[in-house]
Design a protein that fits this description.
By secondary structure, this protein is α+β, with helices and mostly antiparallel strands. It is 46% helix and 14% strand. A hairpin with a 5-residue loop joins strand 6 and strand 7. It comes from Phaeodactylibacter xiamenensis.
């Protein structure tokens, strides 16, 4: 089967790839499973060769990252782990003292006046991100920059590279 990528899906949908001719769908998970199989069965096959067997889109135009896929990553790498970590009192207390910008840069779009005088700690940012992720309050622009908001209209924006750095730093912290 040949697949073209549907980049502009609603973030609540499962990421899919549309078949050009038959309009049937396959999930990104299925594509990754096929890639894993191809790596085991054909270890010398290039990624471009693999892509060409599964898509009409040239490899140079491949766009695998979608809002829906990124939303799933956020849940698995921030929301769920934060719920576990915040029960670990020693680690959580460290996060209350660390500045969030130690892990990645982000833009403060709106902050409640009572919070603007407080330091922007990792504990606060992780809680805001967790709430935004869990309550579908993450918005993606065309460049896949993410804006996280909460019920108090606090808003933070991360570029995709900064968001990836933040997730990697959180993973490293959890494993330390």
């Amino acid at each position: 089967m040949k697949y073209a990528i549907n980049l502009y899906q609603a973030s609540s949908e499962i990421p899919t790839f549309m078949t050009m001719a038959k309009r049937s769908e396959t999930s990104l998970l299925s594509l990754i499973q096929r890639l894993q199989h191809a790596l085991q069965e054909h270890p010398n096959q290039s990624l471009a060769e693999f892509w060409n067997t599964h898509s009409d889109v040239p490899p140079s135009q491949a766009q695998l990252l979608t809002p829906a896929f990124l939303q799933q990553q956020l849940y698995g790498q921030i929301a769920r782990p934060w719920e576990r970590l915040k029960r670990n009192k020693p680690k959580k207390s460290v996060l209350k003292k660390m500045m969030a910008t130690d892990w990645a840069d982000f833009e403060i779009l709106n902050l409640h006046p009572s919070l603007s005088r407080k330091p922007m700690t990792l504990s606060f940012v992780l809680e805001l991100l967790r709430n935004a992720i869990s309550h579908d309050k993450v918005r993606w622009d065309k460049d896949l920059n993410a804006t996280f908001s909460d019920w108090d209209s606090n808003k933070l924006r991360f570029s995709l590279p900064a968001l990836i750095r933040f997730m990697e730093a959180f993973e490293a912290f959890r494993q330390s």
